[in-house]
Amino acid sequence: MTLCSLFSGTLLNPKQRDARLTKLISTVETLLDQNPLNKKVIYDTIRYIDQLWFRGQLLPLVNNKYGPIRVTLRVPLNIQNYSPQAVAGAVFIKKGGIYFMLNRQLFDTLFLPENKPQELKENGYHVGGVVRTTRAECVAHVICHEVVHLLMMVCDKDEIEDQHNLFFKNISFACFGHTTEKHGLVQGLLHTMSLQELKLHISAGQDVLRFLNGRWVLVKVTKKGGSHTTVEDQEGNVHRVHIGFLKPIGPRAIKNQGDFACDA
After folding, report:
1. Least buried of 115, 133, 153, 217, by fewest C-beta within 10 Å?
2. What's the domain range around 218?
């Protein structure tokens, strides 16, 4: 069975997925303990994901179609019109070659002592809709997200038109346990709840905190939606906000520096 036909049928069950994720996170933790976040760490992680999930078939397919993957740690200036702080990772074609980018500048801002106080150890950042409580988890899951784009580029003819289409979501959700294609890797935007849990704890008429310009501010929910919720600030202005920027009021609300969330 070829790699592409394999993923047009049955995918992993949660028990298989979680066992592989445990191995992956442990491997990335070891790599980051021994090295800074560099090109070798990223490529070794891609190769390990290929071995665990794709039977070692993905990288040869990519190589045959595009040539060897070129790993980069800097955000290209023109990528999707995003600022460098907004992009965690990307896969793109440039001058006939395929590039796999991870934004080292962004990852270097995560889990610093000044924005992760000792009493908030259980807090973490959203990647794929789930709270990741270590830098290794964040790195691993962003790479998983981008590996799905590699798979799409060799298996899915619609990838260019819709980069986060149903094929993408089926693979990233089933293989890696993601619940969204978004990330919240923003300095200071720490959470204890997944996006699904946040949806359960936020309702219309409720006062909540909104993360805006690096700090948490008080707003009122006027209309609850799916991934986005309508809120009203204290000046009476109405805003449509991604739920990842909100959290219920409680003793663990924090203030810190940050920017904004975006596609991974």
Report:
1. 217
2. 195-259
214 within a domain of the structure (yes/no): yes
CATH code, 243: 2.30.30.140
SS3 71: strand
Q: Residues 65, 139: one domain?
A: yes
The backbone region for 256, taken as left when phi is positive above 0, alpha when psi lies in -120 to 50, beta otherwise, is: beta
Residues 232 and 241: their CA atoms lie apart, in Å, by 10
Q: How far apart are CA 148 and CA 101, in angstroms?
A: 14
CA angle 36, 61, 52 (to 5 degrees): 55
Rg of the chain taking only CA atoms, in angstroms: 19
C-alpha–C-alpha distance, residues 60 and 13, integer Å: 26
Question: What would the two tokens of residue 78 be?
Answer: 């023109």
| Residues in Cβ contact with 61 at an 8 Å cutoff, skipping those fewer than 6 apart | 3, 154
How far apart, in whole angstroms, are the C-alpha atoms of residue 260 and residue 192? 18
What strands lie across the sheet with 69-72, from one edge to the other?
A: 69-72, 97-102, 89-94
Alpha helices in the chain, H assignment, sequence order:
3-6, 14-34, 39-54, 58-66, 104-107, 135-155, 166-176, 195-201
User: In a structure prediction context, what are the per-residue pLDDT tens digits for the chain, which is 264 residues long?
Assistant: 466 666 654 467 888 899 999 999 999 999 999 999 999 999 999 999 999 999 999 999 999 999 999 999 988 766 655 555 678 999 988 887 899 999 998 898 888 765 555 444 557 889 999 999 899 999 999 999 999 999 988 886 555 556 788 888 888 998 999 998 888 888 788 888 888 898 888 999 999 999 998 888 999 999 988 889 999 999 999 999 998 899 898 644 443 333 333 344
